[in-house]
Amino acid sequence: MAAKKIRKNKSTLREYAEAIGMALLMALGIQIFIVQAFKIPSGSMIPTLLIGDHLLVNKLAYGTRFPEKISLFLFDLPIPSRWIPISGRYLMEWGAPKHGDVVVFVYPEDRSKDFIKRVIGVGGDLVEIRDKKVYINQSLIDDPHAHFEEGRAPYGNVQIRDNHGPVRVPEGHIFVMGDNRDRSLDSRFWGFVKLEDVKGRAFLIYWSWDGSDRWIRWERIGDRIY
Question: Which of 100, 103, 116, 112 is nearest to 41 (CA)?
């Protein structure tokens, strides 16, 4: 009887271990290929996104992309390209970012960082900013998300911030800007984003709290991102 009980306990433990292992693999697979969580650390997308907002990003919005790093608990683990040569590349593509999409992408000047901005121009567009107003292909666009706070510009360059271009967006690239136009470090300062560096489209705020007092912003939880 004792031997049977030991075998039964081992079988139960094995079942639990297999179930937990399968759950972890599924969660990892979802994060790698389907949806991933991101946190907003700066005010460049105010008022659409606030510091302390936690977002879900649809990684299937434009295709299936193998990540350059995997987030496990509090750690971001880079994937060496010598191990997986396709890390950071799209395995399949079925769409492209559109005007107005809020996208997460690899920051061109530091590939260890992810940025989030709004798509203003796509491949072939002629983009120009005149006195803070945005023109696409020489036509003033409806820009309901734009927010202005004045004050010091990124890099201290007010002229580039308020008047830029015209510049032609190369094919295979996008031109992005933060909704907080006066306080955003974006394509006006460092150029275009390659489509292959776009990780996905932000679509939902799943958690939010004030960064200083840690008060939960209940009214923002569950908000769609447009």
Answer: 116
pLDDT digits (tens, 9 = 90+) for 112-156: 899 999 999 999 999 999 999 999 999 999 999 999 987 776 666
Residue 223 burial (10 A CB sphere; 0-12, 13-18, 19+): middle
pTM for the full model? Answer: 0.77
List the catalytic residue out of 4, 42, 44, 133: 44
The one-character DSSP state at 181 is: G
Single-letter residue type at 66: F
Active site residue 133: no
Any catalytic annotation for residue 117?
yes
| All residues at 6 or more sequence positions from 66 whose CB lies less than 8 Å from its CB, including other chains | 32, 79, 84, 86, 87, 88, 89, 90, 91
Yes or no: say if 118 and 179 are a contact pair by the CB < 8 Å rule.
Answer: yes
| Residues 137, 74 share a domain | yes
Among residues 59, 117, 187, 208, which one is catalytic?
117
Same domain as 58, residue 8: no
Asked if residue 27 and residue 45 are part of one domain, the reply reads no
